[in-house]
Amino acid sequence: MIQPPALKLQRAEGALRMSVKKDGVRTRLDQLRQSGCLKTFFPHSPHSALECILVNVSGGIAASDRLESLFSCPARTHLILSTQGAERYQRVRDGEAPSQVTTICHVGAGAQLEWLPRETLYYNDAYVTRNFEVHLTADARFTSVETRVFGRSYAGERVQRLRLKERMCVYRDGAPLFIDAVISDAISDAVLDRAAIGDGAHVQQSILHVSDEATICLDEVRTAIRGVNHVHMAASAWNGVMVIRLLARHLDHALKAGEAALKVVRRGADMPPSWRY
Predict the structure, then answer these.
(1) Which of 60, 61, 42 is CA-nearest to residue 50?
(2) Where are the alpha helices (DSSP H) in 161-250?
């Protein structure tokens, strides 16, 4: 019997290029080019920083999808980036290529970039390749949060296999400052349940804060996180870099602890509008 050829599914592509500029005390949009599934909108903000909400109108990221973003923050500007909601990495079929997501940021002297997306959901059989680069100049500041949710436990989904190749590289004046990678072809519930890995926690959050004040506020950050129950925490700081790792069984607990830590490093500033709903 002749088998019909496998259906070739349509794939999403998106490209985003954004630069900002200083206008008095405020940061304003300078140039913006967006195409494909990546879109932006700019909520009204009473602050001097420019807030931008990123939207993937494809509704999720699947096999062979390609998303590329480039952000430029010249000297003394302040840009806050977030997402409209949770991003979703969908399952792939056998033989399909991974999704590819690339983000590159340039931050000038005295400028500040905050990368504060909502959580990312990794479905069973997802296959993800993601590269995130940040290039800092002189005393530029950078803050980021990444929240990974493995599987849809609320829907009874068990993660049998997840292939993940994610890499974050932060450079200051061309020299490596912080490099972090998650590379595995066999993430599963069985792996996450191991005591030395997740001990049953399927939500992992990483917070990075790069500034001259990173070591100064470390104790305050630890105290803030300890006030949240059901979260395992590790936080350290060195050479102007603070790294916070959180593990939780439920997303709400991780988000609450993360917001407590971010409130300290962000000097009490409110989270972006998309975090308030």
Answers:
(1) 42
(2) 189-192, 218-226
The residue assigned the tokens 């979703």 is 88
**Residue 159, pLDDT score:** 82
Mean pLDDT rounded to a whole number for the chain: 91
Q: Which helix (H) or strand (E) holds 27?
A: strand 26-36
| Sequence letter at residue 276 | R
Q: How far apart are CA 147 and CA 166, in angstroms?
A: 13
Cα–Cα distance between 80 and 85 in angstroms, integer?
15
- How far, in Å, CA of 210 to CA of 231, rounded? 23
Report the distance separating Cα 263 and Cα 108, nearest Å.
24
CA angle, residues 108, 113, 114, in degrees to nearest 5: 170
By C-alpha distance, which of 41, 18, 32, 240 is closest to 107? 18
pLDDT (average), residues 117-130: 91
Q: Answer yes or no: are the C-beta atoms of 21 and 30 closer than 8 Å.
A: yes
Buried b (16+ CB within 10 A) or exposed e, 138-156: eebbbbbbbbbbbbbbeee
User: Is-contact 241 262, C-beta < 8 A?
Assistant: no
Instruction: Give which of 124, 134, 210 is closest to 160, Cα–Cα.
Output: 124
pLDDT digits (tens, 9 = 90+) for 221-232: 999 999 999 999
Amino acid at 277: Y
